[in-house]
Amino acid sequence: MPENLLKSYRFRVEREAKWRELETLISRAERQGLSSLTAEELVRAPALYRACMSSLSVARSISLDANLVAYLESLCLRAYFVVYGVRAGIGQVVADFFRREFPVAVRLTKWANGLAALLLLAGAATGWAVTAQEPAWFEAFVDPAMAQGRTPDATRETLSETIFDKPSAADQLAAFATFLFQHNARIGMLCFVLGAAFGVPVVVLLYYNGLTIGAICAVFAGKDLTLEFLAWLAIHGTTELAAIVLCGGAGFHLAGAMINPGSRTRLAAI
User: What domain count does the chain have?
Assistant: First the structure.
């Protein structure tokens, strides 16, 4: 028998019993939960995990059989999540995300979020100014499906009905709100995903979305409904526009990793 095979065989014989014992405990815990383990088994599991980690370290250092090393790596990974994994329930995990992890992520990307907000506002200001000066530009900035009659040619009464919940317009307003939600959700997801394209599509999406908002604002402002429309927008659009800004910020953060990954590969930086 070649020396390396003999070495691998002896190594396995001396330690395999503990590996099998650990694998049995881990498999049962994965299928039935930690409650299926006895108190003695719960106490023994960390010791078996450490023994398995020690075996893995030795196996790597003396270049044993690759299949054996792969088996030990897989077993150690599974054991880690069972022995040291998160014990909190789904409710606690969700609460921790909104209380700590999400605010921290927003703060870490504050400059990217600021850039996203600036582009959205710049687009809105441009769309408002251009449409107010030349209403014909409205059709270039706003899709007819989104406008739904909110055009420069609409009367003040017609525009007013689109922002005040009159019974006769309730169904129309609900349909418009649903359309806006779907539109904004799509824009937000695209802003995040397309950050991988070095951020260029994110700039275009945010600015163009701002143009659309600004053009619609200009239409209402032209009929002396500025405050009424902005109040309606504050109620119906604050959360969605904030979500677009955060998605845009995340996209720019992703773009930053693509542009300047440092000493890492781009995949690792992402």
Answer: 2
